[in-house]
Design goal:
Blueprint: E1 2-6, E2 21-25, E3 28-29, E4 35-38, E5 44-45, E6 57-60, E7 66-69, E8 75-78, E9 89-94, E10 97-103, H1 106-115, E11 120-123, E12 151-155, H2 156-168, E13 189-192, E14 202-207, E15 210-219, H3 239-245, E16 247-248, E17 251-260, E18 272-275, E19 280-285
Parallel strand pairs: 12-13
Antiparallel strand pairs: 1-13, 2-3, 2-18, 4-5, 4-11, 6-7, 7-8, 9-10, 10-11, 12-17, 14-15, 14-19, 15-17, 16-17
């Protein structure tokens, strides 16, 4: 098995970057989901509520600034705010967990309002501010503004099998199914060379020189029905087929969440680097996830 895809989403629910290498921090890939939009109550905003978020192209500049480009060509560069620099701090929330994040400059909010809605752009200047769900993580495990865990893994074998199942459901016309691309699932790491759904049995894996705990299946939502290139909702798939054929923990599931392990002797925020083509090895397996529980 090999690492065949790497994806970083600098702003939660906006467009992806797909580098050939990525540094790994305890809270996720470098630059992944350190920014997000929050509504007036502080709750995160995603493509679930506003599919247009996915149409904003994103860049990370060498000085740490964020570059956003709208479909009409309008562009803005946003300096990363920080509480230590005296920038305003807001209390925000992701799936019930409240934490503090630094607010971007007013000009960024005006640009966001013009293109997306009444939202604030915030930056997680302290990546240790948000803990991982203690049911699945250890004390001290933290996560960026991702839904719940530092990294999300998917496999090409499972996507191929899912597309076969969707095609078989097309009222006897499999030729009418356009295979879903992996981008619908917004993973961080994609593994090729495994059997379909093999990742559901992994407990601990190695990618390149780094090891990861496999902690929880990823329950899926309406974002997977959204074309990441156009922003259009494309009907009930893949949720309909996943609900019929691949339910884990009472949800239509695809992919597994990971928490990186700190290598012996490594200190600081950078645990190591992942590279396309890295070998992938299962170190421990035997996880048993069922439709109704673990």
């Amino acid at each position: 098995m090999q690492l065949t895809g790497l994806h970083v989403h600098p702003v939660k629910s906006m467009y992806r970057l797909s580098p050939e290498t990525a540094a790994v921090h305890p809270w996720g890939l470098a630059g992944d989901r350190r920014w997000m939009l929050a509504d007036p109550t502080g709750r995160f905003v995603s493509q679930r509520e506003n599919a247009a978020l996915g149409q904003i192209r994103v860049g990370l500049l060498p000085d740490g600034a964020l570059a956003l480009t709208a479909p009409d060509g309008s562009r803005i560069e946003v300096t990363a705010p920080a509480a230590d620099a005296g920038d305003p701090v807001a209390e925000v929330e992701v799936w019930g967990t409240r934490f503090r994040a630094a607010e971007a400059a007013k000009e960024a909010h005006l640009w966001i309002a013009e293109h997306l809605g009444d939202y604030r752009l915030v930056h997680l200047d302290d990546p240790r501010a948000r803990p991982v769900d203690p049911e699945y993580g250890a004390p001290g495990d933290t996560v960026s503004m991702a839904d719940g865990f530092p990294l999300l893994l998917t496999t090409t074998g499972s996507l191929d099998r899912l597309n076969e199942l969707i095609a078989a459901e097309q009222d006897g016309d499999p030729a009418g199914h356009q295979p879903l691309p992996m981008e619908r699932f917004r993973p961080n790491v994609v593994v090729g060379g495994s059997a379909p759904w093999a990742e559901d049995g992994w407990r601990r894996i190695r990618i390149g020189a780094l090891t990861f705990k496999v902690v929880k299946p990823c329950g899926r939502c309406v974002i997977t029905t959204t074309d990441q290139e156009t922003g259009e909702r494309r009907g009930p798939e893949p949720l309909r087929t996943l609900a019929r054929h691949h339910r884990l923990l009472r949800k239509a599931a695809f992919g597994q969440n990971l928490i990186p392990e700190r290598p012996a002797g490594v200190e600081g925020d950078v645990l190591g680097t992942l590279r396309l083509g890295d070998d992938v090895e299962v170190l421990e397996d035997g996880a048993h996830w069922t439709a109704d529980g673990r």
